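Notebook entry, cofactor series.
This is the third protein in the set we're modelling with a bound small molecule. For this one the ligand is pyridoxal-5'-phosphate. I'm keeping the input format identical across the series so the outputs can be compared line by line later. Sequence and SMILES below, as received.
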Amino acid sequence: MSKSFKTFLKHTAKDFHNQSVNPPVVRASTIIFKSMQHIRKTQFKAKKNPIGGHYDYGRQGTSTTFILQKILTKLEESYHVFTTPTGFGAVFLAIFSVTRPGDEIIVADPVYSPTRLFTEKFLREFNIKTIFYNPSDLKTLEKNITKKTKLIFVENPGSNTFDFQDLGKILSIAKKKKILTAIDNTWGTPYFLKPIKLGFDMSIVSATKYYSGHSDVMGGSLAVNKKVFDQVRKTERITGLRLGPDDAYLITRGLRTLDVRLDRHRENAKKVAAFLSKNRKFKLLYPFKKDSMNFRMWKKYYSGASGLMGLKIKSKNINSVKKFVNSLKLFGYGYSWGGFESLALHQEFRETGNRKYLKLAQDEHLVRFHIGLEDPNDLIADIKQALRHLK
Ligand SMILES: Cc1ncc(COP(=O)(O)O)c(C=O)c1O
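Returned structure with ligand:
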């Protein structure tokens, strides 16, 4: 019987051996075998079938991490998924696996700021050059491709700017020039967008966000196709970038309700977006208005939208923007997102100022909302009372 993915998520990872509905957390450095022959046999199996879940040492994972990787591989519809201790670890693993000194990479201008710092500054120390492109003008991507270009790195939508790009067009440029592609798909997750199926070579998700869903664990996943599998596996083994079993268990637990939570985040965010879109003091950064380019680009590739959105506020009074954010009572102020709770952040200029294409005027300010699983009417009422302070 073929099961839908929603059913698969609820029924997978049962432990019939121990008669438990959940899998055990297998914590191990040393893996013990019955004999030396048994060790060699396992190593031979691992060599022959590197995605088969065979291991002889805890750094390679245990059954707990392999269960998570199996679920994610099915969700991503990819060849394999590597799991890392943080989402940023997955960004690092993707880029470091396929670039070498002398290479160039082209990166979307509004990427998550640590990704920007890593590519622009850290990789330069290894003689790897980064060029940023404007997500709303792909000519800036195409014209910067040289013989040295190894990778195009996309984040969709852009962090804080929420611009949606023409992913198909980017892929066709890359295919024509034989350049590898990677995408940070943390916003949509493979529940709403399946990048490997679309044609990307690598797809990153910070599992810290919607996968775990409860703001109590860090982790990352890197889905790959067959083409880049060996390169990534080699780097993963050499760097030891592996998720631990306790975190893997918590993420597996979170995944059981991924569809239910994301459906609700989507519905709640839609209601809040409908309210926000009527206000003339700011521009809503979320795929909501049907006549916008952003909406068209989102609709073309995604089957749904998550709960993270932004506001571009025009105000000469920055203190009133801060007061607006500080007056929210149901929104926590803090980093990260993707958990059950609503969050708000006023983005300081230092986080966005190094972007070449942002063009944020002195009187423009970015505020980010994560719309959680609370009653959306309560969230709207809270935003309404806080808006009195925005001048
Ligand atoms: C888009 C995006 N990618 C990657 C990351 C990094 O994930 P982590 O915090 O799990 O390292 C974040 C974290 O905020 C993010 O927003």
